Amino acid sequence: METLFQQLTHGNALFLILVLGLGGSFQVGFHITGLSSPSPYIQRFINSSWYDRYGEPPHPQTVTMIWSLIVSMFAVGGLLGAISVKFISDLLGRKKAMICNSFIAVLAAGFMLASKNVNSFEMIIVARFLFGYSAGLGMNTHLIYLGEISPRKIRGIVTLTSAAFTSLGKVSGRAFGLSEILGREDTWDILLSVAALFSFVQIVMLPFFPETPRYLLIEKGDDKACKKALQSLWGQGDYQQEMDEMLTEQAAIKAAPPVSLLQLLRDRTVRWQISTFTYDIFLEAGIPKKKIRYITLGLGVAEILTSLTCGLLIDLTGRRPLLFGGYGVMSACWIFVTVTLNLKDSSYWVPYITVSLMVVFIMFFCGGPGGATPTLNSELFIQSNRMASLVLTGLQRWFMFAVMGLVFPFLIDALSSYLFLLFASACMLGSLYTFFLLPETKGKTLLEISEEFKAITICGKSFAEETRTETRL
Question: What are the C-alpha distances in Å from 237 to residues 156, 179, 233?
């Protein structure tokens, strides 16, 4: 029996996964954490820019508002990027969409580097918006690409690489943010632009790889190009079984009625991420400022290791245990974090208990919801519905990022440690939802998963039931 590495190296699949990751979810992870370390320097830049322009220092509330805009514009851009993924991916195809998306990231880096030279905090806001748009479009297109190139037997591990690259991006943002590298007042603009180098790698390399086989066969009806793409990715072979499965799905798409947007919405779970504000959280916990950057870097390393471990588990344990178990432990972690934050002044070691709880939270997030969710994005819906589901989950994700980015600095001032009880409640709802409603998807075809999901009943009503109306003649 072939090992996973042998399967990935028969063709160009492994190299494609690496190139996709650098220009896809890696960008999201980098920009979520990359802003945390230079936040004091950027706020000082806002002060000096305002003073040079108006001759007087800005009100502290004004600085907080501008800083909140800088944080939240990334999510606003991500929201628009997620909305446009269907249009752009269908218009250009998956490969060209990823290449064009990387050009947007390079343009954003140009705005960011120019902001300091022209003394304009507005250009930082524009750059963050463009980075967000690139991240929102790139993350969803990355997931689509992975789902449409992966064979059923290793679909979980292949799609999980999206989460692994997000974790790699987060740890890279923290590593580059160290004062020994780029986390200094004179280099923060370079720090926030360095991820564009990885997008440039994708621009150069991606044209040498094929379009996704599913897109070529189901969307374009080109069976010869589909077979050629499969052989390029996975090595020489017949691949008739894989193509027959795609044709069966294509027939089901033509026969099935469209799925309503409301149904797609209620089929999804909620995810929360607050990595942008790790600096503020640990400062609130009582960790010395000089140690925060190194602690967050350690969190990033733990995140990568846990994501890799999840890759070994996801096709053994299935998706459901990772989801409801992960959400349950995450909820407990936030409750205990609230307790330790209230006791932070009782002893010098209490803040480090908070750090330990955050490590546990990161481990169960990456080894549970963070790892399994990208796989579910590719498994719960057939080709015709998958794009709509990704748009809706993208809207949900980026809307919450935007709201949290805008209000989090004010909430942490107003609620202090009790803010994290909100996150605990959200995680507990996620655990209950996935335990009682989500079907297992391991080792099943996309049509089997779709039928099983429709069979779920709530209050005696199945998702498969159709609304019928009578017309009296």
Answer: 22, 51, 11
Residue with tokens 């290793």: 154
Contact 218, 250 (CB under 8 A): yes
Separation of alpha carbons 325 and 331, rounded Å: 10
User: What secondary structure letter does DSSP report for 345?
Assistant: T
Q: Report the chain's C-alpha Rg in angstroms.
A: 23
The C-alpha atoms of residue 38 and residue 91 are separated, in whole angstroms, by: 38
- Provide the pLDDT confidence category of residue 347 given band limits of 50, 70 and 90: confident
Helix, strand, coil percent values for the chain (each to nearest 5): 75, 0, 20
**pTM for this entry:** 0.71
Q: CA-to-CA distance for 394 and 258, rounded, in angstroms?
A: 20
Residue 93 — left, alpha, or beta (φ > 0 → left; ψ -120 to 50 → alpha)?
left
Nearest to 398 by CA among 124, 159, 81, 123: 81
**Tokens at residue 138, please?**
């790139």
Q: Are 19 and 201 in contact (CB under 8 A)?
A: yes
Within 8 A by CB and 6+ apart from 86, the residues are 387, 388, 390, 391
Q: Look up residue 58 and give its DSSP letter.
A: P
**Of the candidates 219, 211, 161, 209, the residue with the CA atom closest to the CA atom of residue 377:** 161
Single-letter code of the amino acid located at 383: Q
Contact 21, 162 (CB under 8 A): yes
3-state secondary structure of 257: coil
- 3-class DSSP assignment, residue 458: strand
Distance of alpha carbon 427 from alpha carbon 422, whole angstroms: 9
CA quadruple 230, 102, 272, 344: dihedral sign: positive
380 by DSSP, 3-state: which?
coil
Q: What is the DSSP letter of 56?
A: S
| DSSP type of residue 259 | P
**Distance separating alpha carbons of residues 129 and 162, to the nearest angstrom:** 22
Summarize pLDDT for 165-222 with one digit per residue, the tens: 988 888 888 889 888 889 888 899 999 999 999 999 999 999 999 999 988 888 888 8
- Does position 18 have pLDDT exceeding 50, yes or no? yes
Amino acid, res. 311: G
Reported in sequence order, the residue ranges of 293-352 that DSSP labels E, i.e. its strands, are none
Placement of tokens 């600096």 in the chain: 279
In angstroms, what CA-CA distances link 458 with 81, 121, 266, 376? 33, 50, 11, 21
